[in-house]
Amino acid sequence: MVLVKRVLIAVLVCGVCLAQAQAATTRTRAKNRLPTKPVEVDLPGELLLQTGHAAWVTSVAFSPDGQLLASGGADGTTKLWAVQSREVLRTLSGPTAEGIAVAFSPDGKLLASACADGTVNMWAIQSGELAFTLKGHTAPVTAAAFSPDGKLLATASADKTVKLWLVHNRQEIRSIPAHTAWVTAVAFSPNGQLLATAGADKTVKLWTLRTPGKPRKSQRTAVGQTTDITEKLWRTLVGHTADVTAVAFSPNGALLASASTDKTIKLWTIDTGKAAQTLIGHTAAVFAVAFSPNGALLASASADETVKVWGVQHGTLGYTLSGHTLAVLAVAFSPDAHTIASGSADRTVKLWAIQDGEVARTLADDFQ
């Protein structure tokens, strides 16, 4: 237990020895018609040395149009990649440019990157310039998520709080004492009415977000957006036996997936607050989960060096993606559902092609 907690802390603050991220690996063969080992295409070594991360890749995110991939690293950089060409377009630089967590705005114009100094950098995608920085947390920011309409940004922190920010005027509008330990994850429901948070206190919490009544003139911004938002704790989901590391809503908002250092993934029914399924298969801590755009699949990333893809309806393991050589810390589906991106402590980002439910090949190996 001490080891996995150290791994979690290392992922969040990028500050401890890389060796603690390693775990004994049990590689699972893909089932049915899936190839037992994806075909990997190596990029030229010179390109790898020039453009890649020099340390752990702690986060990945696709742009809404699927053309860009953002990756955050423990080397203190955030990078933007062109998915088709597999080339790095920009390395975002500033006083603090690490991306413990990265998130694109729904319109694709901004990228939020969470930093260990308690700030969140907001980058303009078109120019690659730092647009502004949100300051307020007193400890590392561990996660960030935009609301579906892009007006709000939620951030989670090791200071045990979740903050809500009004993006347009860069204003903190709520600070929620969400958990009794580090807050490790945050996510908006697809309709924007619920906020899910997770923490090192082994719990997942669901909060309702409301804008009561018609906002007064003094509560409006210059563009008519209200700052009069209130949150209320609706449900506390208890079931994990160790730190909860990630949460993700299904596209239809009916389910919430949570990952934990207890090596499991749970699927919770939103209406009842009950765990509908517990997915067991990883042999080490699970650090990230992501639903496919149609909600049929769930990808999970683990310290056992694998990404697993599950069928959501029955909770069955579809296949295991093996190829990373250290803990896998991040995972994301592309908007067209054809690609899974994974980031690892081995300093690489991999793109896996998914066609008709199959792993066809590895589109890009070792962005390192």
Give a short overview.
The protein has helices at residues 2-13, 45-51, and strands at 57-62, 68-73, 78-82, 87-92, 102-104, 110-114, 119-124, 130-135, 141-146, 152-157, 162-166, 171-176, 183-188, 194-199, 203-210, 230-238, 244-249, 255-260, 264-269, 274-280, 286-291, 297-302, 306-311, 316-322, 328-333, 339-344, 349-355, 358-364. It has 368 residues and is mostly beta strands.
Question: Would you spell out the secondary-structure blueprint of this structure?
Answer:
Layout lengths: L1 H12 L31 H7 L5 E6 L5 E6 L4 E5 L4 E6 L9 E3 L5 E5 L4 E6 L5 E6 L5 E6 L5 E6 L4 E5 L4 E6 L6 E6 L5 E6 L3 E8 L19 E9 L5 E6 L5 E6 L3 E6 L4 E7 L5 E6 L5 E6 L3 E6 L4 E7 L5 E6 L5 E6 L4 E7 L2 E7 L4
Antiparallel strand pairs: 1-2, 2-3, 3-4, 5-6, 6-7, 7-8, 9-10, 10-11, 11-12, 13-14, 14-15, 15-16, 17-18, 18-19, 19-20, 21-22, 22-23, 23-24, 25-26, 26-27, 27-28
Instruction: Return the domain count.
Output: 1
Instruction: Output the CATH class name.
Output: Mainly Beta
- Output the structural class: mainly beta
Helix run count: 2
The N- to C-terminal Cα distance equals: 31 Å
SSE order, one letter for each helix or strand: HHEEEEEEEEEEEEEEEEEEEEEEEEEEEE
β-strand number: 28
Sheet bearing the most strands, described? 4 strands, antiparallel
- Across the major sheet, the strand order is 1-2-3-4
Low-confidence stretches: 1-51, 214-224, 358-368
Please tell me the overall pLDDT: 82
